[in-house]
């Protein structure tokens, strides 16, 4: 019985001992995105991690915490919903008529009507032009917070590359957002981005198929220069 009590006491003491932190190995080719010290602001400054503790100042997981991005290095998803429709038409006309008559007075009984002078001139111009364009972009891209402005707005930037069988697709986005416009799912619409710069580009066979060849462009340029 005494041996059982000693074994139970040893088990309790081993449970109270602190365990060391196990470091996870990262692949050799993986490099996390670096943030320069100049980009860190008062609101998004780096907080040192405390290993071996259940509480960390740099990251907390609670049932009531706000998980929306608001610090440098945080990520959020931008829902792309861009639609542009533009049309322009112009119609102009110009008419100008001028008439000038010069009469010669009659002297005596001689007919001098042949000496009369009459000048007429007219100018006319009609022009009409129209143009229309429609673009639509939808999808999603995950970006990273690169800076926190003094007023609390967030500067974001991200790039997405999709490699398909016949080419590559690139999407780049940067701009400024308000934390209030980010929903509880950590998403924001692209229509809520200020100073937005969205670039969509394709490379490869599919992108080349939608462009005319160099010979077609050369012939079209010389035969129809207007």
Description:
This protein is mostly beta strands and 226 residues long. The protein has a domain of 102 residues. It is built from 3 helices and 6 strands. Its main location: membrane. It comes from Bowmanella pacifica. GO terms for molecular function: cytoskeletal motor activity. It is found in: Cell outer membrane; Bacterial flagellum basal body; Membrane.
Strand order of the largest sheet: 5-1-2-3-4-6
Low-confidence stretches: 17-33, 41-50
Strand proportion, as a percent range, falls in 35-45%
Number of continuous helical runs: 3
Overall shape: elongated
| Radius of gyration based on Cα positions | 38 Å
Mean model confidence by pLDDT? 71
Describe this structure in a few short sentences:
With 226 residues, the chain is mainly β. It contains 3 helices and 6 strands, in the order H-E-E-E-E-E-E-H-H.
Features:
single chain; elongated; 42% strand; mainly beta; 6-stranded mixed sheet; 226 residues
Question: What's the arrangement of secondary structure elements?
Answer:
Layout: H1 2-16, E1 75-102, E2 117-148, E3 154-164, E4 167-177, E5 187-189, E6 194-204, H2 205-209, H3 214-223
Parallel strand pairs: 1-5
Antiparallel strand pairs: 1-2, 2-3, 3-4, 4-6
């Amino acid at each position: 019985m005494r041996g059982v009590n000693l074994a139970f006491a040893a088990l309790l003491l081993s449970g109270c001992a602190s365990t060391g932190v196990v470091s996870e190995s990262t692949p050799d080719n993986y490099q996390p995105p670096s943030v320069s010290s100049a980009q860190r602001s008062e609101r998004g400054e780096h907080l040192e991690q405390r290993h071996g503790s259940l509480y960390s100042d740099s990251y907390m997981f609670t049932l009531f915490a706000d998980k929306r991005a608001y610090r440098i290095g945080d990520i959020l998803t931008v829902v792309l919903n861009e639609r542009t429709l533009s049309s322009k038409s112009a119609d102009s006309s110009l008419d100008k008529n001028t008439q000038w008559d010069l009469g010669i007075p009659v002297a005596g009984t001689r007919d001098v009507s042949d000496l009369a002078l009459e000048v007429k001139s007219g100018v006319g111009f009609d022009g009409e032009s129209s143009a229309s364009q429609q673009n639509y972009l939808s999808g999603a891209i995950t970006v990273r917070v690169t800076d926190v402005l003094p007023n609390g707005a967030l500067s974001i930037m991200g790039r997405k590359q999709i490699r398909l069988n016949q080419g590559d697709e690139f999407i780049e986005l940067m701009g400024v957002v308000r934390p209030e416009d980010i929903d509880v799912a950590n998403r924001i619409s692209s229509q809520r981005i200020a100073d937005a710069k969205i670039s969509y580009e394709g490379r490869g066979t599919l992108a080349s198929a939608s462009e005319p060849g160099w010979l077609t462009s050369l012939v079209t340029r010389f035969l129809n220069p207007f």
